[in-house]
Sequence to fold (234 residues):
Amino acid sequence: MPRPPLLLLPGLLCDARLWRDPIEGLGEGASTVVADMTRDDTLQAMAARAIAAMQAAGAERFAVAGLSMGGYAAFEVLRQAPGRVERLALMDTSARPDTPEASRQRKGLIALTRSGRFRGVTPRLLPRLLHQDHLGGPLAEEVMAMADRVGRDAFLRQQAAILGRPDSRPMLGGIAVPTVVVVGEADLLTPPDLAEEMAAGIPGAALHRVPGCGHLPPMEAPGAVTAILQDWLG
Fold:
């Protein structure tokens, strides 16, 4: 049975580089689309644009994998097109909305960025994103360059979208497609307990904790992520 087409949803300040190595690992026979998550300021609009991209690619039904903000958008894709999603992969993300404190911090960051102090991903921020073994090397440089490519204006739109996300926990029990939940064991932004919550709430979901990884397993451990995706896609 052929694999379904795969829709890949990047996270905050991420572009197609996030998924480059797993796409290569899946091989030439894989049909993949990396959604543009930079142009909209709501998850609803991001999801609609991603679904339209799959329609343009001729994919009536497809698998969806989203990391972090991409995971929030994956839930929205399910809401908008439940009959078109064949499989679901939730990576380093959460079904929960922002806490009041997280919302306050996010609004403060938006205000700072609007005042002209956008700095993307700085060396000081990298320990929040990457496992300590990946700090200071070429991977760290790639993460900072990726954030620079996404840029200030897209960052503001993405933060607004994340700020407005709903609580997706009530929908977990109704997810009836093959689902994998993946998390870096050292993820500080969306820790493993949030992945465990999602996996426990989705019937039949498989949970994978990736060692030696922080928040970005597709870049930090592409071989492990590729193997998980291959098994999930069948």
